[in-house]
Design brief:
There is one protein chain. The protein is built from 19 helices and twelve strands. With 575 residues, it is α/β, with parallel strands linked by helices. The longest helix has 53 residues, at 218-270. The strands form three sheets. The protein has a six-stranded mixed beta sheet. 65% of the residues lie in helices and 10% in strands. The protein is elongated. It is a multi-pass membrane protein. It holds the Pfam family ABC_membrane. Residues 341-575 form the ABC transporter domain.
């Protein structure tokens, strides 16, 4: 394997190599099965010659006994060959599914860029399954080739012309089948792309159905899905037509080939060059060859679809990472909070990224700082940098004096937690969602405190089973305000030394927002908190506020001071 091979191709090849044992076992057993199938016509012909033509009853019984043993052997071989093939196919699909999901969930990110969640799910399931099916196709292909070889050898022994006909005609037939698989491969790839896109759009529409109805664009969304679904259907029909055309042509070619074999065998029997038993064996072998040749058609279709799916998997695995992983030798220890200093300082030094320009920002340990942005793009860029979902083009982001680029990503995100505005809930109970990131040693008092601080205790009292109420996937069984409070409670429960909250109260009423602001101030005492928000209620509990305008710090000071002295700030928070 070349060192220049992309990672995705290496993973695919490694996944195939790891199943070498099962594939080899399945192929050997499949070869035994096909050999037995090919010998059955020969044994029938011998039984006819011995028992019918020569009238040798003991000889007839002997060959019938041998035939029975061969039947038992080929049945055993088929069963265990299929079992090994299925195991190899399922194991390969599982391995690739794990690799794709691992790449999508990798801390460095990047694989999800430009792809809908439904599309990624389709690649991790259907495409992985198709590549796994290649393992079975290899076993079937090797077994079919063995059946053809054994059939050709037997025919050579019966008649040289018949044997040469099979040996010369089969490679030509396989070459034609390979040419027929090319359109199917291209159309199968397009079919999978369109199906994945349709799945992704459908998943997004279902997830945002309540929002779509609320703003009255449900008909537009439905129309969009219908258009994409029709495109997917068209691609599927084209792939189906290509597969049907390939199978039809394969049937025609195979039938013509077998007709020639049967015709030649019949003429040889008529001229006395072969006996009755040999003629029966020859015709039966010609019929037997339909199986291996048909299997080659199926194998080619599976390989064509597998190659298309493998390419899509490789694209995900080879997707550029949003941030570079830190080498083990260069990795610095992630700072941790202590009892005397539970919060950690955060700093941006001359950072330029997206709309941010040479931004300098210091947040002291234990300080609560509000960040107001005149442009939402500034907030989005800041959150990406603090969560290290991207690295700055220039400058550095530091945690306790150490650049984020030198810290382990998993440990970093536990120490510096960025709670996005659109955070999702997961299926389970409300309590499960809140305590998802809570260490097992943390007692119930902490959980009760975060429920109170986030005003989630009010939500608990309205639910039928309180904390144990089941929450559906993405929290759609809750209202927008309830989901937002549960997500905030989850972020507060993690008790990170540094917590960055992005607009955590946009879906709650003014009274609840004031209560939440006081709760955040109290429960985060001593820890570093950054509130990226334009909410006056939240900004009022900060130690100081920073206004970002044009990608730079335009003003800094107390909330009340900036309201009275800074017009751009007043416009941002009060308009």
């Amino acid at each position: 394997m070349s060192k220049a091979d992309p990672p995705g191709r290496k993973v695919l090849r490694r996944a195939v190599r790891e199943q070498r044992r099962d594939v080899t076992l399945g192929a050997v057993l499949g070869m035994g099965h096909q050999t037995g199938e090919a010998l059955v016509p020969v044994l029938i012909g011998l039984a006819i010659d011995e028992g019918v033509v020569d009238g040798d009853v003991p000889g007839l019984l002997l060959w019938l006994g041998v035939l029975a043993v061969v039947y038992v052997g080929l049945s055993f071989s088929f069963r265990w060959s299929a079992r090994a093939g299925e195991r190899a196919a399922l194991t390969t699909a599982h391995r690739l599914r794990t690799e794709v999901i691992g790449r999508v969930l990798a801390p460095e990110g990047g694989a999800e860029e430009g792809r809908l969640p439904g599309e990624l799910a389709n690649i991790a399931t259907e495409d992985a399954k198709r590549v796994g099916a290649v393992m079975m196709a290899l076993i079937v292909g090797i077994a079919a080739a063995t059946g053809l070889a054994v059939g050709a050898v037997v025919l050579l022994r019966v008649s040289l012309p018949l044997g040469l006909l099979v040996l010369l005609g089969t490679p030509l037939l396989l070459w034609l089948v390979h040419l027929l698989s090319k359109p199917l491969e291209a159309r199968s790839e397009h079919e999978q792309e369109q199906a994945a896109r349709a799945s992704g759009v459908a998943a997004d529409l279902v997830a945002g159905l309540r929002v779509l109805k609320g703003i009255g664009i449900e008909p537009t969304a439905v129309s969009r899905y219908r258009r994409i679904s029709r495109q997917s259907l068209t691609a599927t029909l084209r792939a189906a037509r290509a597969e049907a055309w390939q199978n039809a042509m394969m049937t025609v070619l195979t039938g013509a080939f077998l007709a020639v074999v049967a015709l030649v065998g019949g003429r040889l029997a008529a001229s006395g060059d072969i006996g009755i038993g040999e003629l029966v064996s020859s015709v039966a072998l010609a019929l037997f060859l339909i199986g291996p040749l048909s299997e080659f058609s199926w194998v080619n279709a599976e390989l064509a679809q597998g190659r298309a799916s493998a390419g899509r998997i490789a694209e995900v695995l080879d997707a550029p990472r949003a941030v570079s992983p830190v080498a083990e030798s260069a990795r610095a220890a992630v700072p941790a909070g202590t009892e005397t200093r539970p919060g950690l300082p955060v700093a941006l030094r001359g950072v330029s990224y997206g709309p941010l320009r040479a931004l300098d920002l210091d947040v002291a340990a234990g300080e609560t700082v509000g960040v107001v942005t005149a442009d939402p793009a500034d907030a989005a860029a800041l959150l990406r940098l603090l969560g290290r979902r991207a690295d700055p083009d220039e400058g550095a982001v530091e945690l306790d004096g150490t650049a984020l680029t030198a810290l382990d990503l998993t440990g970093l995100r536990a120490a510096l937690l960025v709670a996005e505005h659109d955070a999702d809930l997961f299926e389970g109970t409300l309590l499960d969602n809140v305590t998802a990131a809570v260490p097992a040693a943390v007692g119930g008092a902490r959980v009760s405190a975060v429920l109170t601080a986030s005003a989630t205790d009010e939500v608990v009292r309205t639910l039928p089973d309180g904390r144990d109420t089941a929450v559906t996937a993405r929290g759609h069984s809750l209202s927008g305000g309830q989901r937002q409070r549960v997500a905030l409670a989850r972020a507060l429960a993690a008790d990170a030394p540094v917590l960055v909250l992005h607009e955590p109260t946009t879906a709650v009423d003014a009274v609840t927002e004031v209560r939440i602001a006081a709760g955040i101030r109290e429960i985060r005492a001593g820890r570093t908190t950054v509130l990226v928000t334009n909410s006056p209620a939240l900004l009022g509990i900060t130690d100081r506020v920073v206004l970002l305008d044009g990608g730079r710090v335009a003003a800094s000071g107390g909330h009340e001071q900036l309201v009275h002295e800074c017009a751009p700030y007043r416009t941002a928070v009060l308009s």
